[in-house]
Fold this protein.
Amino acid sequence: MSGEPATDNFDTMSDTPILIAGAGAIGSILGGMLHDAGHDVTLLGRPAHLEAIARRGLRISGLLGDRIVAGMTLADDPARLGRRFGLIVCAVKSYDTESIAAALADRLSDDGAIVSMQNGLGNIESLIESFGRRRVLGARVIFGAEIPSPGSAHVTVFAQPVAIGPAPAIHREDSPALAARARAIAAMIDAAGVPAVAVDDIMPVLWTKVLYNVALNPLGALLQQHYGALAGDPDVRPIMDSAIEEAFAVARALGIALPFSSAAEYRKVFYEQMIPPTSSHRPTMLHDLHVRGRTEIGALNGKIVELADRLGVSAETNRILTRLVRAAQRVTEKKERR
């Protein structure tokens, strides 16, 4: 039932304590909307953001509507979480997945679920190491948000519903039960005002977003340009085409059931349908590169290179983009030390 709106098993989620592990822009929006819909939500995030929320509530604005949400439980340290949760939404940066999983390993109830709502590849596998196959789901988030100031979260772009589901190639015999759980979680999120659907296999959906990200994120970060400018530049567009071509070949070699017959078919959809509604958007990698000095390049283009090397597939464009972003990270680090 790929892409089917979720309606069954909804009641099983009504009293479930929810932890948003990583209350950045996406996590704050999701947590705030769920709490506003009557759910018991705890936000785990950075002190400055949480302190502002404690003082005046979480201010949500943008494409999902404007509201102020108060009354959520707030924590800036996993050690201060005093209970277990039936649902954990993992929304941290991909490079923090292993550390947050270790910190929260005993915070998920025995019959609970943790959902990776993160960029890139490898997050599901990392969470399984700490929580086991039966309690981990994947999700594709393709709406854009930002924190304009501590205590605020603004939705800038909403391209498609959040998709939640298992990865049958990884979960194997546990997939049917996890698919049912994904339907319940997606129904709850959808009812809270964040469009969401359940899918029976999350991997083709994740890979479709990866194809989008490997083309746009590193170049948007390096050139400090929005997506429309990248697609319209005659020197940049061939680089994006090559990055997509390589990532598509890796997905094919892995047996991922992409909903496109070829990379050329995907690129047509990419330029004609995906880019236009997000034309003015800039990647979060741009902010991460110049403000944090650390990006998720390892889970995106870097992961394509890692998989390509293992499979004997060429990925030289993705390799160059990965090296350029890592070099740019080092430049930022040197500036911060001065």
